[in-house]
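Hello again, I could really use a second opinion on something today. My current little project is about how a certain protein chain folds up. You're getting the sequence in one-letter code plus the fold written as tokens. Here's the protein in full, and shout if anything looks odd to you:
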Amino acid sequence: MQLFELVLMPQYSQSIHIASSSLEPLYPWTYAKLHWQHWIPDSKEANIPGIRASWANVQLDQQNLTAYADICGVNLVTDVAFLGDRGWYSHEIPPLYWLSLTAPIQMQLLQGDNLPLSLLTTRLAWIRVLAKKYLHKQTAIDFKFFLTAVEPSALGCQVTLLINAMIQEEIIWQAEVGFVSLGRQKLTEAFRQQQCHQNSQLLKVGYWYVPVDMGRQFARISGDYHPLYVSSLLARMMGYRRDVVQELWLLAAAIAHFPLPPQPFLLEAQFGGPVYNGSKVDLFGLQNPRGYSFQLTTPCQQVPVISAKVVSC
């Protein structure tokens, strides 16, 4: 099972080959620089689907993975309903870890060329992750990044990236990621209120409180220091009440609370309104023979901030 047929993905003439074993973080001033570069077109190939970057023979940073597991781990959520064994085993790599690790590459690809968006107003809208085989900590991975779609939307522009993780050319993990940008319009928290819809069949299974500095904590792991995550002042300038927590951290924390189904499995998630650092998060879920569905809510949101499901393929 693949999320996208690779035969449709030509080689992009300006694709990036990343030689370093580690990625350079994206800091707030990096975002500011990329934002101003956004106004200067530099390519006629912006909307052409194809491979955009490759990152070969990536060795796992054990220290980084340990830090990720600590802040996204199974002890984060306070139980309301007992679900049995949960989360990933200690010898496995968490299913969303590679998405967080490659965040700087994703952001730079979105800002490259002449794509009609700015990173300061671009937010994660949805993901689909296919975990085909267990990823062990000693395994070196090759990554390829594809641009698959650039489409207009009611919000301004939607861009879809495809990320493949491979061992000896075999795809063992795959993620399709949708980003939405309002372009030159001011981004506020209201635009995402209709992304998720309440599922009344789900039961409350747990809750937790987001640490006030979680945006900075997770940025140190992912390398993505978006101003919205690390600065209340800059977040207010962008139309938010204060700094928000990363969507992938919220999703990873929720997944760690549930038992993962046998691989291969598919994770699908839609992201709604923002969750502020320091907020309470309620977890609602329902298990079934093939997996489970869940939603995250906060007391100040009228609709779920995340709606997701995990199913065996």
Summary: The domain at 6-312 is CATH 3.10.129.10 (Thiol Ester Dehydrase; Chain A).
